TrEMBL record:
<dbReference type="Pfam" id="PF02774">
    <property type="entry name" value="Semialdhyde_dhC"/>
</dbReference>
<keyword id="KW-0560">Oxidoreductase</keyword>
<dbReference type="GO" id="GO:0051287">
    <property type="term" value="F:NAD binding"/>
</dbReference>
<comment type="similarity">
    <text>Belongs to the aspartate-semialdehyde dehydrogenase family.</text>
</comment>
<dbReference type="InterPro" id="IPR000534">
    <property type="entry name" value="Semialdehyde_DH_NAD-bd"/>
</dbReference>
<dbReference type="GO" id="GO:0008652">
    <property type="term" value="P:amino acid biosynthetic process"/>
</dbReference>
<dbReference type="InterPro" id="IPR012280">
    <property type="entry name" value="Semialdhyde_DH_dimer_dom"/>
</dbReference>
<dbReference type="GO" id="GO:0004073">
    <property type="term" value="F:aspartate-semialdehyde dehydrogenase activity"/>
</dbReference>
<dbReference type="InterPro" id="IPR036291">
    <property type="entry name" value="NAD(P)-bd_dom_sf"/>
</dbReference>
<dbReference type="Pfam" id="PF01118">
    <property type="entry name" value="Semialdhyde_dh"/>
</dbReference>
<protein>
    <submittedName>
        <fullName>Aspartate-semialdehyde dehydrogenase</fullName>
        <ecNumber>1.2.1.11</ecNumber>
    </submittedName>
</protein>
<feature type="domain" description="Semialdehyde dehydrogenase NAD-binding">
    <location>
        <begin position="7"/>
        <end position="119"/>
    </location>
</feature>
<dbReference type="GO" id="GO:0046983">
    <property type="term" value="F:protein dimerization activity"/>
</dbReference>
Length: 335
């Protein structure tokens, strides 16, 4: 049965994630009737290519959401909070990538795609943060093998997690340092080029940042393990695109590495790298549609611990593709 084409809006169409989302809609031949590209007043008026045509980007402030049936919000939390209620009131299904909307179902198709059947209309879906997506894709196949007690994550986040301005800042800082010019940080509060910043965002009273708390909450929801103990430290690394994660999974029972490798090898959305090798964001993940998993091993002296290394394209796989895959599930459910 042919899926009927939909009128779709993309809010934040000129951002790094929005541009990737539009590109993927075309790549997967998503059934689009009319595509409305929306952005702030500053970005309105520019053009984006889609299906061989230049589409003009319009201001989201003046858009009539009754013209769309499905809306992707690939903008800031403030934009989602301002305009998503209008889209829902107009009867649109909403897929939000900001994590700002209360009551939305966090969906990672490879991990909890069955939850699509529970959604009422109009559907309200959160496409989780790129980190939560990568971790959920890697950990979901292991739920039946391990009695997971705790997960500890060191998340090495690319600057593109914070948008185009952060990418430009890393490029500018790198050029200034390589040319022996004085460095004046602008977007970041200090030098990020050739450096590591062990804090992404402003910490709360307990010392945790919003991006860390969001990752914990979304991962628990997607894995359906609300009491799972998760420790996360997010580190800003001088990488343009591609997040990487050092993960330690503590199990209550001994970890069978043969069974773990078999489960990862068979899982959708994962590329398991053979023992002795390891994946990197630049050499492997960027531009790809999977989560790369490598360095699968026990703890140094503990067979109840599983250590993993993950890397993935945060903009493409972690954000844009996950949102499009959620939309593909949704239209099948709506049919």
């Amino acid at each position: 049965m042919t899926t009927p084409a939909l009128d779709i809006a993309v809010v934040g169409a000129t951002g790094t994630v929005g541009e990737s989302l539009v590109q993927i809609l075309e790549e997967v031949a998503f059934p689009v009737s009319t595509l409305h590209l929306l952005a702030s007043m500053e970005s309105a008026g520019s053009s984006v290519m889609f299906a061989g045509k230049k589409l003009k980007v319009r201001e989201v402030d003046s858009f009539d959401f009754s013209q769309a049936q499905l809306v992707f919000f690939a903008a800031s939390p403030a934009v989602s909070r301002s305009f998503a209620p209008k889209a829902i009131a107009a009867g649109c299904a909403v897929i939000d990538l900001s994590g700002a909307l209360d009551g939305a179902t966090a969906l990672v198709p490879e991990a909890n795609g069955e939850r699509i059947a529970e959604l009422a209309r109009p559907a309200l879906i959160t496409s989780p943060s790129a980190g939560a997506v990568a971790l959920a894709v890697a950990l979901a196949p292991l739920k039946g093998l391990l009695d997971i007690e705790r997960v500890q994550v060191n998340a090495c986040l690319a600057v593109s997690e914070q948008g185009r301005e952060a990418v430009s800042e890393l490029a500018r800082q790198t050029a200034e340092l390589l040319n022996a010019r004085p460095l004046e940080p602008r977007f970041f509060d200090r030098q990020v080029a050739f450096n590591l910043l062990p804090q992404v965002g402003t910490p709360d009273e307990q010392g945790h940042t919003a991006v860390e708390r969001r990752l914990v909450g979304e991962l628990r929801q997607v894995l359906d393990l609300p009491q799972l103990k998760i420790s996360v430290t997010c580190i800003q690394v001088p990488v343009f695109f591609g997040d990487s994660f050092s993960v330690a999974v503590q199990s209550r029972n001994p970890v069978d590495l043969v069974a773990v490798n078999a489960a990862l090898e068979a899982a959708d959305g994962i590329e398991l790298v053979e023992a002795g090798d390891y994946p990197t964001p630049v050499g492997d993940a960027v531009g790809q549609d999977v989560v790369y998993v490598g360095r699968v091993r026990h703890g140094v002296d503990e067979d109840q611990q599983l250590n993993l290394w993950l890397t993935t394209d945060n903009v493409r796989k972690g954000a844009a593709l996950n949102a499009v895959q959620a939309a593909q599930l949704l239209i099948k459910h709506m049919a």
